[in-house]
Amino acid sequence: MDGSSTGDSIRVAGDVVAYYSSDKRLKDNIKPIENALDKVNAISGVTFEWNEKSHKTTGRKDVGVVAQEVEEVFPEIVETRSNGYKAVDYQKLTAVLIESVKELTVKVEALEAKQCNCK
């Protein structure tokens, strides 16, 4: 079997463990994600069923996001594959969610402080 031609997916029965290089020393121009909450609000979390074009079990229920929506706010985490279909690097959404939680925390703390001052 030619290892360079794996098709559309790899299926593994056991766990797959992968680590990505994330060391600060390997990065330049590090900046926080701005307006992360607004960007998260532009992406829908959806439930759906896979169709026959997906090469997955047709009708199987799943959860996820829509690549085209993600691409509008984060084009760097969406890839258009050679078959024309779009794929999302879900792992990178974690950084966006972290920053959006931090933005929400600031808003909640401001509301709590305002409420405490009103008493």
Give the tags.
3 helices, alpha+beta, two-stranded antiparallel ribbon, extended, 119 residues, single chain
Helices and strands, with pairings:
Elements: H1 36-41, E1 46-49, E2 61-64, H2 67-73, E3 78-80, E4 86-88, H3 90-118
Antiparallel strand pairs: 1-2, 3-4
Could you explain the architecture of this structure?
The protein is an alpha+beta fold. The chain is built from three helices and four strands. The strands form two sheets. The protein has a two-stranded antiparallel ribbon. It has a two-stranded antiparallel sheet with strand order 3-4. A hairpin with a 5-residue loop joins strand 3 (78-80) and strand 4 (86-88). The chain is extended, with a radius of gyration of 19 Å. The termini are far apart. 3% of the residues are buried.
How many helices in DSSP terms? 3
Instruction: State the order of secondary-structure elements, H for helix, E for strand.
Output: HEEHEEH
Which stretches are poorly predicted, pLDDT < 50 over at least 5 residues?
Answer: none
Approximate helicity band: 25-40%
Question: Which structural category fits the helices and strands?
Answer: alpha+beta
Shape, per Cα inertia axes: extended
Q: How confident is the prediction overall: mean pLDDT?
A: 90
Distance between the termini: 73 Å
Q: Could you give the count of β-strands? A: 4
**Mind telling me the C-alpha Rg?**
19 Å
Major beta-sheet overview? 2 strands, antiparallel
Strand order of the largest sheet: 1-2
SS strand fraction: 5-15%
